[in-house]
Amino acid sequence: MLSMLLAACGGNSGEKEESSDGSNDEKSEETSEGPELGQKDLTQPYVAWARETISTHMLGALLEEVGYNVELKQVEAGAMWSSVADGSTDFHTSAWLPATHAPYWEKYSEDIVKVKQVLDKAPLALAVPSYMKDVNSIEDLKGNKELGESVDWTVTGIDPGAGIMQNTEEAFEAYGLDNWELTSSSEAAMLTTLQSAAENEEPIIVPLWKPHWIFGTMDLKMLEDPKEIYGGDGDQIYTVARNGLEEDAPRAYKVLEQYNENYEMINEMMPKVHAEDQDPAEVVREYMENNPDQVDKWLEGVPRE
């Protein structure tokens, strides 16, 4: 009876105790189904654009959920692409293709893997406030002296390395906008200038894209682009990774393969970060807590730690 009682109480010291979920704590990584962890430390570069801030923090949080240490590194567009290509960072989820980031893809495609399309339609264009009733197409800018003088013949741009800035320079040439000039600053500075102009119903022209939180707070219109310099119906957005990441961090790569987005999701979170100045890490964590079924889809078949 005593020996039976000891056995029932786990008196065999040669066996490992199981955790409450039935797994062996000491050997959980070895016995868990799904891809191995591999390289535990990952670096994800990003540009602090509207959607990219959300998406980058979301992927970082998901990867930490499955056992990784993820460093989010804010950089300019050129460095975002080049660092993944040379292997000093691991992946980014900000590849706007085939049009906007075409020069980067052409330069680095041999060293970068296109992992997953995360958003199927991301249009870009020049944009104006809707009260500018007589401006509906990029063609309306050509030779438009009244409009040109009212904005000092200037399109107010963002950071110079952004693909949409290169598109805009191409548009100037394609549409014969010889008198026009594109200024560069940052997305935040451009939006401040746009909002200031709109408060007084002053004319202004800026490069913009969707998804973007500003469309939820201002009445704006994207100008028609009959020559499709900005990619027609819009780019698709992809997650891309350095060569070898799939072998070095199989679990992370599977998460990247399963992660996707939709406008409803992005539009829910962008205003909280960019209009209400909430911490993006807290915003994505809140979304994950409120949408466990979505998180389960992103992490299907991936062990969590």
TrEMBL record:
InterPro entries: ABC_Gly_betaine_transp_sub-bd (IPR007210). It comes from the Bacteria. Residues 14-30 have a biased composition (Basic and acidic residues). PANTHER family: GLYCINE BETAINE/PROLINE BETAINE TRANSPORT SYSTEM PERMEASE PROTEIN PROW, GLYCINE BETAINE_PROLINE BETAINE TRANSPORT SYSTEM PERMEASE PROTEIN PROW. It is found in: Cell membrane. Signal peptide: none annotated. Its main location: membrane. Pfam families: OpuAC. The lineage of its organism: Bacteria, Bacillati, Bacillota, Bacilli, Bacillales. Keywords: Cell membrane, Membrane, Transport. This is Glycine betaine ABC transporter substrate-binding protein. Residues 8-41 are annotated as: Disordered. The keyword Chloroplast does not apply. Residues 45-290 form the ABC-type glycine betaine transport system substrate-binding domain.
